[in-house]
Amino acid sequence: MSEIIVVGAGIAGMTAAVKASELGSHVTLISPDYSERSQSVMAMGGINAALGKNDSVDEHFADTMNGGCGINDVKAVKRLTDDAPQIINWLSSIGTTFTRDGEGKIDQRYFGGQKKKRTAYAGARTGKQIVTALINECRKKEAEGGVTRVVGWRFLSLIIKNGKCLGVICINEDTSEIREFLSDSVIIATGGLNKLFGKTSGSIHNDGVATARLFMQGVELANLEMIQYHPTTVNTPVKRMLITEAARGEGGKLYTIRDGEKWYFMKEWYPELAELMPRDVVSRSIYKASEAGKNQVYLDISHLDEDIIKTKLDEVYEICTNYLNLDPTSDAIPVYPGVHFFMGGIKTDENHKTNIQGLYAAGECSVQYHGANRLGGNSLLGAVHGGWIAAENAIMDSNDDYINQIDDELESFNKFEKSGKPADVEDELAEIMAQYMGIYRNEKDLKDALAKLDELEVKADSYYDYIKLESLILLAKACVISALMRKESRGAHQRTDYPQTSEEFKRTTCVTYGGEINVAFR
Questions:
Q1: Residue 400 pLDDT more than 80?
Q2: CA pair distance 165, 401, nearest whole angstrom
Q3: Domain limits of the chain?
Q4: Do 3-226+343-408 and 412-521 agree at the fold level?
Q5: Phi, psi torsion values for 200, nearest 5 degrees
Q6: What is the domain class of 3-226+343-408 according to CATH?
Q7: Cα distance between residue 270 and residue 286, in whole Å
């Protein structure tokens, strides 16, 4: 029986654990918290699949490639969209309670960048429903002995010998114990890079440290400049909260006040799809219509039936009433773009393999499906599909070497504890990235960002948790350098000094580290 480690217990990680166990492997599922607290539960809008008679997997493929501006992995996207109907059926079979139409069929709604009703959903709580179903499947595998959960541990490092990944080193956040976990293969499912920007719509558990540490160990990253700003978020004291794209899919309208009247700018600028343009387009439109945030933009759903708002958009209703003190059945919602999803991360092929033997990645931390911009509804699909495919490939690896591994790898973490408050450095890092890696960028700002990150790196050396801070600052630099090197505007990457899209850059940004950051386009 092969031994597989899965790091991360959200939708991608749990899918990988369930599928690998079904295929005869033993899985150790490692995470800092229980799956109920994973970022996956925050996904509201839905999951894409061509289920209707008037839709097709070919159209889903075309929309995904167009949304990604042509730099998605063609083979991976084709497999993703072909497999999507099977994935929906599987999720339904394990207990995901999708919203149904009058005939009992899975209902679907419009989402941005797609002309067909392709997004299956469970009210505004699709992520929670999928997570719940997967938790039940995992519990069955745990009871059978196929999955062992290890909770409260955070990733620190891979164990690599002779070019092979033999396991991981993790730290217990309560006791500070550091230990190694050994395996035939490892699947990383640790989500996006939220800590780089501080206030995002995502979970603080998905801090990007795992991706940053992998980068320092020679794992190739890609498309780090591609950072999705979700058009409709609202500000709260702790984070930016998401007003799901489903609100626009059900008919919500964006407007701002111009000359004393409501100006529905999306309908004027993009009459065919209006609010259902891809997220990068809507975010840029809000930026321009609001004059970079000087004027408030509103999302109005008050014209919808109250039943739709309180059932299909129930979580939107709760956010507005609980956090904004407004009633969306009668009041418009003040919105502005916020960092939401990272198309960039660990470079993987269509089989979810990395450049390190025995190492795989799935979910938001993995790069191949979304290119320069992710379509709404494709993230949950990519997470389930990625976990599934990674598991199928990981079970074929075997490493006799891992059995003989010794504990000398742990010695490299002797300097893990230092004095100081890392939050100060983290806050400064987030300020730099938010200021210079926003919706629009230019060469001067990006070079200023690099200079500030150099200064911050010196400051971080005297702080507690230096390994974490050092790796995050390096990852931030890689993001900025990627943006600096891509001298064009494409999808989520917009350069005011290079406003045109260039065929020269219709390629993937590939980033490696070997003492210095290297960027190549392939």
A1: no
A2: 10
A3: 3-226+343-408, 230-339, 412-521
A4: no
A5: -125, -175
A6: alpha beta
A7: 13
CA distance 413 to 123: 46
Residue pair 378/25 in contact (Cβ under 8 Å)? The answer is no
Q: Please tell me the class of the 412-521 domain.
A: mainly alpha
> Is the CATH number of domain 230-339 3.90.700.10?
yes
Asked if residues 302 and 247 have their Cβ atoms less than 8 Å apart, the reply is no
Residues 6+ apart with CB under 8 A from 60: 48, 49, 50, 81, 84, 114, 118
Cα separations in angstroms, 206 against 80, 269, 311, 459: 24, 36, 29, 24
Looking at the whole model, is its pTM more than 0.90?
Answer: yes
Active-site hit among 109, 279, 486, 495: 279
Beta-carbon contacts of residue 383 (< 8 Å; ≥ 6 apart): 10, 11, 12, 15, 40, 189, 362, 363, 364
Is the pLDDT score of 403 beyond 60? no
Strands of 147-151's sheet in order across: 147-151, 26-31, 3-7, 185-188, 359-361
Compute the distance between CA of residue 459 and CA of residue 453 in angstroms, rounded to an integer.
Answer: 10
Phi, psi of 73 (to 5 degrees): -80, 110
Tell me if 371 sits within 8 A of 69, measured CB to CB: yes
Average the pLDDT over 433-438 and give the result.
96
Catalytic residue list contains 279 = yes
